[in-house]
Amino acid sequence: ALVAGLRALLLSNASPNSFSDLTRADLGGVAGRTLLTNPPVFAAALSAAGGSDGGAFAHAWLAISDSILLSSARRLAALSLVSLLSNHPSSFEAMEQILSFCVSVLAEEEQAGLTPPPKGRGSPNGAPP
Fold first, then answer.
1. Is 125 helix (H, G, I), strand (E, B) or coil?
2. What is the tens place of the pLDDT at every residue in 32-62?
3. Any idea what DSSP says for residue 48?
4. Model pTM?
5. In this structure, how many other beta carbons lie within 10 angstroms of the beta carbon of residue 91?
6. Degrees to nearest 5, angle at CA 82 with 13 and 3
7. CA distance 7 to 99
8. Residue 101 CB: number of other CB atoms within 10 A?
């Protein structure tokens, strides 16, 4: 199932019966969870799906990142994509987009009040304002 999901994510633009962006975003989430919990299984599935490297996965998932609607899914995507950088050096080609996505997720979290601002914000010595 993971191989089929990765194949759909990586090759959906080539197929006339491609999946919706929401479905592809969910498939990316399943693959991202696998990457975080069992990197060797992810690497084997990626290879079996025809993805020669992590860069293709990163680009495919980032291309539909606006379809990742839930904040918890966006956090998972950010964490998975950062993990991809350390496990698949070929994903370095997407580093700028990955870091941009991660920064936007952190900004959304802070704006929604889901994470406290870093200590020291607002004063030069780290004391509360």
1. coil
2. 888 889 999 888 888 888 766 788 888 888 8
3. H
4. 0.73
5. 22
6. 40
7. 25
8. 21
Max mean pLDDT range (14-18, 51-55, 106-110): 106-110
Structure tokens at 115: 């994470």
Residue 94 tokens read as 């997407």
Give the CA angle between residues 93, 72, 29 to the nearest 5°: 50
Q: What mean pLDDT is reported for the chain?
A: 80
Crossing angle (nearest 10°) for helices 71-87 and 39-48: 80
Nearest residue to 84 (alpha-carbon basis) of 52, 66, 58: 58
Q: What is the rounded CA–CA span in Å between residue 59 and residue 52?
A: 13
pLDDT in tens, 73-91: 888 899 999 998 888 888 8
Instruction: Kindly report the length of the chain.
Output: 129
